[in-house]
Structure formats: structure tokens, C-alpha cells
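Structure in, sequence out. Go:
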């Protein structure tokens, strides 16, 4: 498999590895790269079936495989340890990676991370997600022009609608047309390859990894209450809830969320890493 990734920023700085969410791409992290690249080495990647990375095997369209892809890439790049950041589905990838490879992480950052069993609430998910939940509609989506669906999804991802530009919508649509991508997204949505749900017991070992949890209180895709669940399950974690912010704080409030990340890295990750290296 050929994997699309970017390795940017300060090659001598602490390393951040950034993992995007469902149907997104590494472009979602560009605001953070611009803000943090002077101090940190930043690796971002397109997961299989997303962005410019194809998927050779639909049976591998699941979170466990994505975590293995992160491991293979970071090993290939010679990264011994790093801070792993994941948004939405990428957050689920991040916490599952942390459970499997805890010795590889200096820190863990969950940005509107998914993984908890969803209870019915008053939220109305974007139309594209409602269609993907329906087996008949999923098959129809293979051949549809998804521009209107993509715009609806983006508008539901931000409180500030000025972020939803034609260029953004067109990029999402264009990347979704890459060979095999729609089949990959449909397979991933079906859940046929299994999903691991977050529970207090399952996440308890993450108390050994410095963890930061970020989420907007107006998230229409992942309930803001999930952040509280992660915070309660991961002893010692830090939690930031942003007022009037949607599903993508790394884009919608890039400066504030990046500053909170830096404060966390300075106070928890780099300090604990230094202490670990002290004789």
C-alpha cells in the first residue's frame, strides 16, 4: 500500500503525529501545522480510503487496521516516541493505538474523539451520515454527485459557517472520487469489520499516558458529552470544552486549540519525558 503523508516542521523538535476523521484528509491539520511547525516536527497522514491514500483491501477498513498503519508509518520514519493526536474517527484510532502500543507514546490528544456507544438525543446528524446508516442508500451513494451532501456535512461541522467555502467542499468531493474511496467509505460505514467501543474498563490503562481531551460544546457529529466520558475514564486526563465550537476545533479555533495543546505539551508531556530520562 502506498500511503500519503506529510513530514513537516522542525525536524529537531518533539514529534506530533496527526490523524484525521471520517471522510476527511490530512488537510484538516494545516492550521495547526502553520502555527506549530516552527517548534514541532509534525507528521500527518491520509488513512486508507481517504485523501490520496487508496485501500487495497476493503476487509481492512476498520479502526484496528488504521492503528496498525500509524505504527507502520512511524516505524518507517524512525520515530521512537511521539505525541499522537486524533480527531473524530482519528481519535478512536488514537486511543486504540495507545492501548496497543503505549510504550510508543509521549502523549495522547483526543479531539472530538469517537468510540462511545451512541444514545439517542436531540441531535440530527448530517444527511450523508443518515444515508450511510441505511444499507440501500449506501449502495446508491456510489454513483451520486455528493457535492450537496458534502456541503451539508461541512455546515454541520462548524458553528462559524464562514469556514465552509466552495474550495473546501470541492476538495472533499474531489478526494472522495479517488478510485475505490467510495467503496472504502461505504465499507467502513457498514461496520461489518467490527468496532471496538470505548468503556471505562477498556480505557483505564491510558491513565499511564498524559492525555488531553478537546471538544466543542456545539458538536453535531460527536456528542460533547463524549469528552466528559473520556475524561472520566482516563484518570489524570485534562479536558477542554470550547463554547460555540463545532466538530473541528483544530480548524474553527486553530489558535486557541493549538495554544492549549502547547500548554499541555509543556506542562505534562515534555516535563514527564524529561523526568523519565533522568538517571
Amino acid at each position: 500500500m502506498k500511503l500519503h503523508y506529510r513530514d513537516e516542521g522542525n525536524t529537531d523538535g518533539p514529534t506530533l503525529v496527526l490523524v484525521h476523521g471520517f471522510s476527511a484528509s490530512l488537510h484538516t491539520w494545516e492550521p495547526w501545522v502553520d502555527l506549530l511547525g516552527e517548534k514541532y516536527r509534525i507528521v500527518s497522514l491520509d488513512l486508507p480510503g481517504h485523501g490520496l491514500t487508496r485501500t487495497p483491501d476493503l476487509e481492512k477498513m476498520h479502526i484496528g487496521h488504521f492503528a496498525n498503519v500509524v505504527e507502520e508509518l512511524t516505524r518507517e520514519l524512525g520515530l521512537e516516541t511521539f505525541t499522537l493526536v486524533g480527531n473524530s474517527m482519528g481519535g478512536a484510532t488514537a486511543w486504540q493505538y495507545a492501548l496497543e502500543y503505549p510504550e510508543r507514546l509521549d502523549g495522547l490528544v483526543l479531539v472530538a474523539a469517537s468510540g462511545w456507544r451512541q444514545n439517542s438525543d436531540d441531535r440530527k446528524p448530517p444527511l450523508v451520515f443518515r444515508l450511510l446508516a441505511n444499507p440501500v442508500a449506501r449502495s446508491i451513494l456510489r454513483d451520486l454527485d455528493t457535492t450537496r451532501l458534502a456541503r451539508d456535512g461541512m455546515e454541520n461541522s462548524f458553528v462559524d459557517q464562514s469556514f465552509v467555502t466552495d474550495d473546501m467542499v470541492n476538495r472533499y468531493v474531489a478526494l472522495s472520487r479517488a478510485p475505490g474511496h467510495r467503496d472504502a467509505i461505504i465499507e467502513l460505514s457498514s461496520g461489518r469489520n467490527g468496532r471496538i467501543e470505548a468503556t471505562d474498563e477498556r480505557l483505564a490503562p491510558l491513565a499511564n499516558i498524559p492525555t488531553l481531551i478537546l471538544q466543542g460544546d456545539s458538536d453535531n457529529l460527536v456528542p460533547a458529552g463524549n469528552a466528559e466520558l473520556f475524561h472520566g475514564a482516563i484518570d489524570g486526563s485534562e479536558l477542554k470544552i470550547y463554547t460555540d465550537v463545532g466538530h473541528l476545533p483544530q480548524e474553527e479555533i486553530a489558535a486557541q486549540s493549538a495554544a492549549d495543546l502547547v500548554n499541555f505539551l509543556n506542562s505534562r508531556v515534555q516535563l514527564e519525558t524529561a523526568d523519565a530520562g533522568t538517571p
